[in-house]
UniProtKB/TrEMBL annotation:
This is Acetolactate synthase. PANTHER family: ACETOLACTATE SYNTHASE CATALYTIC SUBUNIT, MITOCHONDRIAL (PTHR18968:SF13), THIAMINE PYROPHOSPHATE ENZYMES (PTHR18968). It comes from Stanieria cyanosphaera (strain ATCC 29371 / PCC 7437). Residues 38-148 form the Thiamine pyrophosphate enzyme N-terminal TPP-binding domain. Its EC number is 2.2.1.6. Pfam families: TPP_enzyme_C, TPP_enzyme_M, TPP_enzyme_N. Keywords: Thiamine pyrophosphate, Transferase. InterPro entries: DHS-like_NAD/FAD-binding_dom, THDP-binding, Thiamin_PyroP_enz_cen_dom, Thiamin_PyroP_enz_TPP-bd_dom, TPP_enz, TPP_enzyme_TPP-bd. Transmembrane segments: none annotated. It comes from the Bacteria. GO terms for biological process: isoleucine biosynthetic process; L-valine biosynthetic process. GO terms for molecular function: acetolactate synthase activity; flavin adenine dinucleotide binding; magnesium ion binding; thiamine pyrophosphate binding. Belongs to the TPP enzyme family. CDD domains: TPP_enzymes (cd00568), TPP_PYR_POX_like (cd07035).
Length: 592
């Protein structure tokens, strides 16, 4: 099965034939408009020029004029039930379409409710523009309803650039809009992620723009290593065996990485987020590292530890490595990342040759120096690939479904039987899916390991389904589904979303994890919920599965459904999930 990525080319190109980026918004809509545009009209027209097709949010009085302008634009407005869900959906819509998305909220709690999703957008490398309202100057400090001003909210970090937003500002007059346009254009044109916050007081939203926005023109080259750095990489990698460690930041270089591995014979491992960038059925593939990773990786590092590991597009943080000394190569890392601050941070004492480059450009340059035949230096690498357990474990007569058997059914019916995007929720759902599912294409598996917020997949699946225009699957626990699922939103917009719920009436990662840490007497149980009835009560449909022999038929019914669908699977809560590495990491940090 060959997957074709369903993306449309954004209006902002991040790579031209000369390796530069150019943005020049047209003014045709203003030239033909005899009336003077308002600030919100000018901003929305700008967003259209940036290639924005969808805006996710929750309305409110403060954002009213902006909301109304969006509703009458070419941008599709998707009104959610909670701001966090809207932000998570915007993140996943970006990854499904490669187009920037908008999140909109009203003042006060609208802003604070969206922050977790926006933090996930920053951590995952999405391109999201956050539009919010703030209290008009005349009303500030006078106990306005849901007041949003320096009288009652911190401005630093929320309305200024920093760790949360690459760019943030409050528009206090229409004269600021040209600068806002320039900052947004520059940020969206960069190859990595970009999260911006533009807050506009209600009164300013309806103020008239005094002068039309001038065209913005600039060029930006992709960062790449110089010839000296490439030559040194070739020298190091040609001498002795090496391995490749693939991260999510390398997702646009899947073809080139496969070519490099096959030409050199290098073993390949990946971070949890990078599943599928290198085919997991490939004979040179070792497995996933870190959280819910595979013993095959550790076995390789113990028996055939390479001199160098070429790290492509991963921070090597705790979810990817647990900072384990077992993952250190004999000589050191050759660490390539588009962010120059990444290499060396996870393993500060390790020998690291840091290279600042966009991954695809770097690997293409590297390939010029390797012959099409296998490199002698890696002739002794013989990785042991993981074998699928599907069909090898008989169905149990018990009324409880083992999660491992559920994953086997998902692999057969969904991963191998469709082109659907598959997302896994934080918790045991993440652990089971990452450990057991196998993907041979990039762009099909989505998890968030940085923020790791519950509800990300359960709500993000709506944005993914709408952006993908096809089935998107969320594998989620019952705790996450009760927290925030946006089934009702999916019904409204006819999103082809499917939720597969691991229903065990508890926060089972917490329950199992506490027991492994020796922390007894913890109550992580949840009153049982019937998610089929919940779904049907909101206009969706579903099916409950209590026997392993019914799994494939239930999943097939979900994939054939024409409305949002929930598969409520009653799973065995005692079956241990593959979270031992995470628990050991916590215990090293003092959680024992």
């Amino acid at each position: 099965m060959k997957l074709q990525q369903k993306t449309t080319k954004p209006l902002i190109s991040t790579e031209t034939s000369s390796g530069s980026s150019i943005f020049a918004p047209s003014q045709s809509s203003q030239d033909t408009n005899p009336t003077q545009p308002t600030v919100t009209q000018a901003l929305v027209e700008l967003l259209e020029e940036f290639g924005v097709k969808s805006a996710f949010g929750v309305s409110g009085g403060g954002i009213g004029p902006m909301w109304a302008t969006l509703e009458h634009s070419l941008i599709k407005v998707l009104h959610f039930r909670h701001e966090a869900g809207a932000a998570f959906a915007a993140v996943e819509s970006y990854f499904a379409t490669n187009r920037p998305t908008v999140v909109f909220t009203t003042t006060g709690p609208g802003i604070t409710n969206a922050l977790t999703g926006l933090l996930a957008a920053r951590g995952d490398g999405a391109k999201v523009i956050f539009l919010s309202a703030s209290t008009s100057a005349v009303s500030r400090g006078r106990a306005a309803c849901q007041e949003t001003s320096t009288y009652n909210m911190p401005s630093s970090g929320l309305f200024t650039s920093g760790p949360l937003f690459h760019y943030a500002t409050t528009v206090e007059s229409s004269e600021q809009l040209p600068e806002v346009a320039l900052r947004l254009a520059l940020g969206l044109a960069q190859p990595e992620g970009f999260v911006a916050h533009v807050s506009i007081p209600t009164a300013i939203q309806t103020s008239l723009l005094n002068a039309p926005l001038a065209p913005v023109k600039f060029s930006r080259s992709l960062p790449t290593a110089g010839e000296d750095a490439i030559a040194e990489c070739i020298r190091l990698l040609s001498q002795k065996p090496f391995a490749i460690w693939v991260g999510f930041g390398a997702r646009n270089a899947a073809t080139e990485i496969k070519q490099l591995a096959e030409r050199t014979g290098a073993a390949v491992m990946c971070s949890p987020r990078a599943k599928g960038i290198f085919p997991e059925s490939h004979p040179q593939y070792l497995g996933v590292t870190g959280f819910s990773g595979h013993e095959t990786v550790l076995n390789y590092m113990e028996s055939q530890r390479p001199d160098y590991i070429l790290v492509l597009g991963t921070r090597l943080g705790e979810p990817t490595s647990f900072w384990s000394p077992a993952m250190l190569p004999n000589q050191g890392f050759i660490h390539v990342d588009i962010d120059p601050e990444v290499p060396g941070t996870a393993y500060p004492t390790a020998n690291t040759f840091a290279i600042h480059s966009e991954i695809k450009v770097f690997v293409k340059n590297l390939l010029r120096y390797f012959p099409s035949t296998s490199c002698k230096g890696n002739s002794r690498i013989a990785p042991t690939t993981r074998q699928s357990s599907y069909g090898q474990i008989p169905f149990a007569p018990t009324s409880l479904v083992r999660p491992e058997i559920l994953m086997d059914a998902i692999q057969k019916v969904i991963v191998e039987g469709s082109d659907a995007i598959v997302m896994a929720e934080a918790g045991n759902s993440f652990a089971w899916a990452t450990h057991h599912l196998k993907f041979d294409q990039p762009y099909r598996y989505r998890i968030s390991t940085g923020v790791g917020a519950m509800g990300h997949a359960a709500t993000g699946v709506v944005g993914a389904a709408l952006g993908w225009h096809d089935k998107a699957i969320a594998i989620a626990g019952d705790g996450a589904m009760l927290m925030n699922s946006e089934i009702n939103t999916a019904v409204k917009y006819e999103a082809p979303a499917v939720w597969i719920v691991l229903n065990d009436a508890r926060y089972n990662m917490c329950d199992q994890g506490m027991n492994l840490q020796g922390l007894k007497g913890i109550d992580a149980h949840i009153p049982p919920a019937d998610f089929v009835k919940i779904a049907q009560g909101m206009g969706a449909d579903g099916i409950r599965v209590e026997k392993e022999s019914d799994l494939e038929a239930a999943l097939a019914k979900a994939m054939a459904a024409t409305i949002p669908f929930v598969v409520d699977v009653i799973i065995d809560p005692t079956f241990p999930s593959p979270i031992a590495g995470r628990v050991k990491s916590l215990m090293k940090q003092g959680a024992k």
